[in-house]
Known about the structure:
Blueprint: E1 2-5, H1 10-20, E2 28-32, H2 39-43, E3 47-50, H3 59-62, E4 68-71, H4 81-95, E5 99-105, H5 115-130, E6 133-139, H6 145-149, H7 153-156, E7 158-161, H8 172-186, H9 207-212, E8 215-219, H10 227-238, E9 243-246, H11 249-258, H12 263-278, H13 287-292, H14 299-306
Parallel strand pairs: 1-2, 1-4, 2-3, 4-5, 5-6, 6-8, 7-9
Helix pairs in contact: 1-8, 4-5, 10-14, 11-12
Amino acid sequence: MIVITGATGALNGATVDHLLARVPAAEIAVAVREPARARRFADLGVRVRHGDYADPASLPRAFEGADHLLLVSANDPGADAVALHRTAIDAAVAAGVGRVLYTSHQGAHPDSAFKPARDHAATEGLLADSGLAWTALRNGFYAHSLTHLAGPWRETGTLTVPADGPVSWTAREDAAEAAAVILAALAGYGGPAAAGHGDPTTAGHGGPAARGYDGPVTLTAAAAPTFHQVADLAAELSGRPVRCVAVDPEEWVATQVASGTPEFMARFTLGIYQAAAQGRFAGTDPLLSALLAREPRTVRDLLADDA
């Protein structure tokens, strides 16, 4: 059985949708904080269970019978994400889960300027020490975030940043589909395996397919443009000048706070730009394209859709 957490959210909800095209509904369960919100899955024959990282007692039953468990990362910037993930991993051990797949991040690193990237690195360490078979799906930075980070460039003709660096902006929808392809392959339900990542017809959590997905797996778009390059692309698509302006980080934070953003969130977001400048989001990998059997969505696609 495949158990998916966070299925009422955008990422893992889309993964379940893609999985249902590959795996019988009776072989899928979702573990969610509010089961009533997962009614659409129940109507399709998916088992719906209550499971909340903040409620440890709910998790062993939510994970019961899982050959493969997809753990979504905590998304509350103010939460102790690593503690929540530790609770979920401990419950997976107690439930005898075959393999844990965790939605990590391409930039996972203990020295990243971006706090969630440090949390992802710590969580991968917990998985490595758990004794479980595990896979970290290191997704590229979700491309829809660029809409917020780029600001009102259409009105101002300016993209203002406190630091710049390459980012392999990756569509969340593509990451969700890739997770479904991997889960289906590991569970033995066929579908294309990426070159070098085992035989998708091998069932269970052992065998060639599973060994091909041990540890971190990087899923990114094919390119990693800088914010200056994003501005150039925006200008090309809009047919008018768009420039990228780098400002002092503290000045940028002060401007955000003055516009109504809490300072905590302004500094949280600042970490994204600073990690990009560190090169944490620069790498690209062809695996996503191979899993999807098509080219992933691009920044050009995102900007064109928003035009």
